[in-house]
């Protein structure tokens, strides 16, 4: 019980097999109908729940429909429009600046390369990966959000700590065809069972291969701290 398999590759294969069976229909939970809406939604989702973002974008996407709309928006007004979003002041500034760059340098289109996306203000590699995967059908890497960061460490798949290093560490051991779905599977499992503060190890499909299982181990490998 609670024992990681002999190699990281074997651990990844077993984890993915079980999670694919547990969450057969998992996918991105942000609502969007085009690449621009996707980019805006992902920018808003940083350190904010997808549920909250979806609630705000219902009206936001009716008011702002084009890159030009965002590029010409008043930052203070946009900040008010997304007032319930975490760090709404900074995100409003990022969105207006990014829209101006897309208008002036990309013909009003959402870029389709990692370098061009991460050149946009407020867009990091995680956001760019999501936009590439779900907006352009380009999979260049693994989206490492808080759930992927937590579960990959808890499950003994990586010992890295930062999203960038975790992504680099995971890519050689996760089959490329699973890069996109790994994120969705880990998010689904992180929300349903392997939560940050009180994971339900007794009802977890991965418990017997998890070296952080509270049923068998004293330490949460995600945080390095002992279980309460």
UniProtKB/TrEMBL annotation:
Q: What EC number(s) has UniProt assigned to this enzyme?
A: 4.2.99.18
Q: Name the SMART domains for this protein.
A: ENDO3c, FES
- Read off the SUPFAM superfamilies from this record: DNA-glycosylase
User: What GO terms describe the biological role, i.e. biological process, of this protein?
Assistant: base-excision repair, AP site formation
Q: Which residues form the HhH-GPD domain?
A: 44-192
Q: Does the keyword Iron apply?
A: yes
Entry cofactors: [4Fe-4S] cluster
Q: Per the record, what are the reactions this protein catalyses?
A: 2'-deoxyribonucleotide-(2'-deoxyribose 5'-phosphate)-2'-deoxyribonucleotide-DNA = a 3'-end 2'-deoxyribonucleotide-(2,3-dehydro-2,3-deoxyribose 5'-phosphate)-DNA + a 5'-end 5'-phospho-2'-deoxyribonucleoside-DNA + H(+); Hydrolyzes mismatched double-stranded DNA and polynucleotides, releasing free thymine
Short name of one Pfam family: EndIII_4Fe-2S
Give the family this protein belongs to, as stated in its UniProt record.
Belongs to the Nth/MutY family.
* Protein name, as recorded: Endonuclease III
Q: Which organism is it from?
A: Halopelagius longus
């Amino acid at each position: 019980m609670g024992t990681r398999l002999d190699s990281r590759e074997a651990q990844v294969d077993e984890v993915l097999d079980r999670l694919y069976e547990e969450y057969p229909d998992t996918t991105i939970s942000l609502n969007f109908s085009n690449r621009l809406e996707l980019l805006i939604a992902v920018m808003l989702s940083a350190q904010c729940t997808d549920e909250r973002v979806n609630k705000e974008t219902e009206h936001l996407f009716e008011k702002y429909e084009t890159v030009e709309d965002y590029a010409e928006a008043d930052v203070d007004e946009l900040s008010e429009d997304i007032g319930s979003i975490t760090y709404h002041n900074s995100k409003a500034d990022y969105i207006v600046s990014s829209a101006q760059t897309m208008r002036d340098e990309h013909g009003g289109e959402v870029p389709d390369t990692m370098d061009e996306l991460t050149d946009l203000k407020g867009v990091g590699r995680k956001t760019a990966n999501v936009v590439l995967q779900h907006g352009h059908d380009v999979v260049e890497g693994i989206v490492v959000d808080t759930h992927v960061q937590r579960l990959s460490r808890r499950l003994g798949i990586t010992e890295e700590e930062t999203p960038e290093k975790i992504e680099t560490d995971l890519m050689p051991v996760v089959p490329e065809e699973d890069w996109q779905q790994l994120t969705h599977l880990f998010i689904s499992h992180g929300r349903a069972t392997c939560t940050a503060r009180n994971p339900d190890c007794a009802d977890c499909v991965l418990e017997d291969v998890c070296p952080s299982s509270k049923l068998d181990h004293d330490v949460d490998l995600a945080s390095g701290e002992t279980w309460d």
